[in-house]
């Protein structure tokens, strides 16, 4: 599904993968709907977490 993306994505890369805006993604990250790692102020999103989110919505 996301074969062309790295295993860990930045916010911008995750937005591109899901075709959503940054505000929407930040809302999903802050609410815990999409799992992520937060290091300082930077979010790192494992690709598997995006796949889990997509599968959960089905």
What does this structure look like?
Strand 2 (37-39) and strand 3 (42-46) form a beta hairpin. The mean pLDDT is 95. This protein has helices at residues 11-18, 22-31, 47-57; strands spanning 8-9, 37-39, 42-46. It has a three-stranded antiparallel beta sheet with strand order 1-3-2. It starts with 7 loop residues before the first strand and ends with a helix. It has one domain (8-57). It has three helices and three strands. It is α+β, with helices and mostly antiparallel strands.
How would you summarize this macromolecular structure in one to three sentences?
The chain is built from three helices and three strands; from the N terminus they run βααββα.
